[in-house]
Amino acid sequence: MLDIRDPGTFQGPDAPADDDLATCVHCGLCLNACPTYRITGLETESPRGRIYLMTRWKRGDLPFTEELARHIDLCLGCRTCEAVCPSGVPYGRIIEGGRAEVERLRRPNPRSLLVRQALRRLLAHPGRLRTVGALTRAAQTLGLTGLVPQGRTLPRLTRAYRPPRGGVAPAPGPPRHRVAFLTGCVMPLLYPSAHEAAVRLLQLAGCEVWFPSDQRCCGALFAHNGDLEGARQLRDHNQHAFGMEDFDVLVVDSAGCGAHLKDFYPNLGRRVRDLTEFLDEIGLPPPEHEVRLRVTYQDACHLVHAQRIRHQPRRLIRSIPGVGLVEMAHSDICCGAAGLYGALQPQMSSRILEEKLDDLLATEAQVVVTANPGCQMQLEAGLRARGRTDVRVAHVAELIVEAYRPSAT
Ligand code: SF4
Ligand code: SF4
């Protein structure tokens, strides 16, 4: 069924800029790096094809149809194409604008409405999120995961991360750096131990870590799903919340949030650092223990492609005595998580995940580490589904901190 509301109109305030679209010279060098093209072999599911469709649509040569929207929907937003493009196409910005247009023109369907309402009503409100976390924990305890949306993908929730009393984690001695820390929206619920490890490492590196009490979700998931207005509201709120204090850098331990802050927050972006980027820069004290583990590393797309951070996490992992880092094939190809993509495009997501699991298991690693909660959740769910609970998934901070724990093996 054609679902045309406003045919040919691709000129909303958030539409991709002509100059951005025109940077594509159609060379095709991005095609084989694109996960959806690698799987389908279709030009329309490639970066070049999507840019071509958006350009024709914007010129009025193509009407808006649900079929056209589906090609935009199927993009993971992984930005692998952006990283390999010799022409500097700002694909992340283009696809966010394209998605905003799709959402503006498309007749609301139940699934996209549900996603948008869930984002606006939950992620932007820490208190409501904590309540949902408590209810989800109760459902998991009672074995009622079927009642929870995406219940089988979620990790077992234990407790929510709480910043230290007074909102400051002190440095062990005179502080070398005063850093702010983004707690984010779902990460305190899903992976509290990753935050604990990240803060502990920052303290070991001589940082005083400050948590602005009024901070909210950074808005990355809003922007990736075409709700740029919702993303702007959160940006304005957070720029005010963080702007009230003085700090050297704002440290982020979630790749998707870090990339969004760097790109979308004009007043904060230049002071944002991924945790691995910052620890690699300032240095950690010598590790105290060996950690005898065979480890592989999955590049989070928004770390390696959007932030171009490839070597820093690997250097940190290799610095731990006892760890054997085994590179997996295609480690910088998306795992299929991509924010809410797994929920919105489950078939393509699981096809991409299956290829990732084959590469991962071929390394015979005991632990796979990554730097983004979405990747962590996707890999855990995939390994569970294959019955491979012997392979642990961890945030890179959780692995590194083991070298500073008395219980490390
Ligand atoms: S996006 Fe870049 S790499 Fe891909 S076809 Fe266009 S210019 Fe070439
Ligand atoms: S963002 Fe990822 S999925 Fe989308 S076109 Fe680029 S490489 Fe392909």
Describe the structure.
This protein has 409 residues and is an alpha/beta fold. The chain has 4 domains: 90 residues, Alpha-helical ferredoxin (Fumarate Reductase Iron-sulfur Protein, Chain B, domain 2); 37 residues, no CATH class; 118 residues, Rossmann fold (3-Layer(aba) Sandwich); 112 residues, Rossmann fold, CATH 3.40.50. The strands form 2 sheets. Strands 1-3-2-4-5 form a 5-stranded mixed β-sheet. It has a 4-stranded parallel β-sheet with strand order 7-6-8-9, with helices on both faces. It is globular and about 65 Å long. The structure holds iron/sulfur cluster (2 copies). One iron/sulfur cluster binds next to helix 3.
Features:
4 domains, Fumarate Reductase Iron-sulfur Protein, Chain B, domain 2, 5-stranded mixed beta sheet, alpha/beta, binds iron/sulfur cluster, 8% strand, 4-stranded parallel beta sheet
Summarize this, please?
The chain has 409 residues and is α/β, with parallel strands linked by helices. It is built from 20 helices and 9 strands. The protein has 4 domains: 18-107, Fumarate Reductase Iron-sulfur Protein, Chain B, domain 2 (Orthogonal Bundle); 111-147, no CATH class; 165-282, Rossmann fold (3-Layer(aba) Sandwich), CATH 3.40.50; 293-404, Rossmann fold (3-Layer(aba) Sandwich).
